[in-house]
């Protein structure tokens, strides 16, 4: 069975809405940026050549080095507001 383009678009919109619903204004700015770009922690870690654990640490509000923040910003193509 093959999906039509309209069905695929509807599924994508629903998935995006559900993913963004998991992130609220009280979430860490990095988590909000990931959600905006539909990235998982694993996706971002791979893009920044970091571990998933490092992304998780930062999202929990713990300190990371400035070079780590710069790598994440380069991977996202924008500055972190934190």
Keywords:
82 residues; mainly alpha; 434 Repressor (Amino-terminal Domain); elongated
CATH superfamily of the domain at 27-82: lambda repressor-like DNA-binding domains
Strand content: under 5%
Over the alpha carbons, how many angstroms does the gyration radius reach?
A: 15 Å
Q: Mean pLDDT score, rounded? A: 84
Total of DSSP H or I helical runs spanning 4+ residues: 5
Q: Return residue spans where pLDDT drops below 50 for at least 5 consecutive residues.
A: none
| CATH topology tier name of the domain at 27-82 | 434 Repressor (Amino-terminal Domain)
Shape: elongated
The CATH class of the domain at 27-82, by name, is: Mainly Alpha
Count the beta strands: 0
Structural class: mainly alpha
Separation of termini?
A: 46 Å
Estimate percent helicity.
Answer: 55-70%
Write the element-wise H/E pattern from the N-terminal end onward.
Answer: HHHHH
CATH-level-2 architecture of the domain at 27-82: Orthogonal Bundle
**Biggest β-sheet: count, sense, barrel?**
none
What do you see in this structure?
- This protein has 82 residues and is mainly alpha-helical.
- The chain has a domain of 56 residues: lambda repressor-like DNA-binding domains (434 Repressor (Amino-terminal Domain)), CATH 1.10.260.
- The protein contains 5 helices and no strands.
- Helix 3 packs across helix 5.
- It starts with a helix and ends in a 6-residue tail after the last helix.
- The mean pLDDT is 84.
Would you summarize the structure shown here?
The chain has about 80 residues and is mostly helical. The protein has helices spanning about 5-20, 30-35, 40-50, 50-60, 65-75. Helix 3 crosses helix 4 and helix 3 (about 40-50) packs across helix 5 (about 65-75).
């Amino acid at each position: 069975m093959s999906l039509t383009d309209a069905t695929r678009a509807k599924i994508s919109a629903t998935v995006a809405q559900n993913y963004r619903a998991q992130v609220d204004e009280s979430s860490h700015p990095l988590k909000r940026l990931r959600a905006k770009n539909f990235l998982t922690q694993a996706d971002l870690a791979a893009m920044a050549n970091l571990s998933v654990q490092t992304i998780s640490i930062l999202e929990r509000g713990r300190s990371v080095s400035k070079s780590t923040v710069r790598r994440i910003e380069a991977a996202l193509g924008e500055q972190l507001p934190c």
